[in-house]
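Running log. JK asked me to keep both predictions on one page so they can be read side by side. First protein, sequence followed by its C-alpha cells:
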Amino acid sequence: MGLCVFDFDSTLMDGETIDFLAAPLGLQDQVAEITQMAMRGELDFFESLIMRVKLLEGLEVARVDEICRNLPYMPGAKETIQALKERGYKVVVFSGGFRNATAHARKVLGFDADFSNILHHRQGRLTGLVGGEMMFSQSKGEMLVRLQQLLDIGPEETIAVGDGANDLSMFAHAAKRVAFCAKQILKEEANIVIDRKDLRELLNFL
C-alpha cells in the first residue's frame, strides 16, 4: 500500500478556490495577487490566508457552496485518482483552501479523505474568520507524518503533489516529490516536474 497526497487548488482543481469566491465581491484581482505572493513564498501562508478570508466578509454561504460545486477540476484528475487507488494507494487531499470545496470534490473525484480549512459564518454570511487543519506553511508536512504513522506507510511509499510554497513541507516526507504546473520555489525541491495541465502525466512516474 502507498500514500499519495495532493494539494487541491491549482493541482486537483484548475485555479484557486478563494479567487473564485472573491469574484462576486469584485475583489478577485486583489485576492489573486495575495494568493500568488503566498504561492511564490514571498508572503507567510498563514498571514496571507487571514488577509484573503477577511476580504470575503459578508459573502452568502449559499453562494460559497454554489461556487464550490462548480469549480473546474484539472484534466485527468478523476482518472488519475482512480488509477492510483487501483494500484493500492490511499489518496488524500491537503488544502489550504476550504472544506466547502474539498468535501464536494471528494464525492466527485473519489479520493479517500480531505483535510482543509473552515470558513466561519453567522446568519448565513461569512464573518471573515477562518480556522482549520491547514492554516500554516508547515501544516501539510505535519499532517502527512501523522497519516504515515497511522497507516504505517513510510516516505519511500509516499507521493506528494503540489504547485506552491505551502506544499514544500510535504516534500521532506515523500520519496516522489511532484511539482505540478508549479511555482519555481517548488520545482527546485521536486524530483518530478510536470508542466502540462494533465494529471495523467503523473502515472508515467509510478
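And the second, directly underneath as requested:
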Amino acid sequence: MHAIQQLDSDYTVIKEVDLQKDKKTALKVNGLAIILSIVMWLIGLAIRPLDLEIGIEMDLRILVIKCVVLVIGYIAYIILHEITHGLAMKHFGGQKVNYGFTGLYAFAGSKEDYFDKYAYLRITLAPVVVWGIVFLVLNILIPSWFWVIWFWQLGNISGAAGDFYVAYLTSKLPDTIRVKDTGVSMTIYDKTQEN
C-alpha cells in the first residue's frame, strides 16, 4: 500500500509548499509556466506554421467554431487534469479525494492520506503524461485541428509547472518520505534521524 492514514511518531515535517502563501516560490513556478508556454508555442510553430492554419480564405464560421471548441475543451481539460490526479491518488490507496478551485488554482488533494515518495511522484505527473499522450495522438489523427489541440497541449505542459516543481523537489528527497497533499498545500514528512 502506497498510502497510509497515520504516520508513526518518528516522522517530522521537513518541507512545506503552499504556492498561495509562498509568493517567492509561486513566482518561480509561474515563471516556469511562462517559459514552458513560450517553448511549446515555438515548437508548435516549427511543426505547423500559422499560415497553414489561418489562410486568407479561411471560413470565419470555422474559425469561430474552433475558438469555441478551444475554450470549452480547455475548461474540460482543467477538470480532467484534476480528476486524473484524484484517480491516481485513489489508485495508490488514497481514502478520500477532495476537489476544488481557489480562484487561482484548481486542485485535487487528500487531507487524510500520506503517500510514499514513488506513489506521490506518479500522482504528481500522471495528468501531464496521460493528457500529453492523448493530445499527441489527437494532433496526429486530426491535423486540421492542430492548433486547437496544440493549445490544449501547451496548457497541459505549462499548466503542470507546479506539478513539475513538486516532482523535482520530491525526487531529491530520501525514499523514506511521506507526502500529504491537501490540494492547496503539500507537507513532506521524514523519519527523524538519530545522531
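Observation for JK regarding the second prediction: The beta strands are 3-4, 11-17, 98-101, 106-109, 114-116, 178-181, 186-191.
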